[in-house]
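User: For my dataset I need records formatted as: sequence, then structure tokens, nothing else. Please produce one.
Assistant:
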Amino acid sequence: ACMIISANLKRHGLKGKVLFLVTKVPLANQQCEELKRHIKGARIISVTGESRHTLSAVLSTHEIVVCTAELLKNDLHTGNVLLEDISLIVFDECHHCKGQSTYSFIMTEYLKRKFKGGEIQLPQIVGLTASPGAGDSRKPN
């Protein structure tokens, strides 16, 4: 993930904005510390519902924002954050992207914009999981 994030920031320069999404508050802090250890020279912050910062505010001052998916969902819904302003979204524990989950909402918004067409630049999407075969995919075909 760190190599993908670094390459994305290098490719996009000053316009590069990375969101690293997690499902739980403790994971936001944990992943933020790991990213700080492995990616030097980038401003990295963790934002959750317990933070005093808003997601839209830190996106203007930091290259990498680790946040709970619920924050992004809420800001997409209100229009405070636009997908077009982000160069990369990393979904940690992406096997949770199913049904009515927050991850599913975010990807639905992404697909709505993608299939609408036009000249909008959407973020690269990366999903991470340590649980291959989660859900209904437990048996090989």
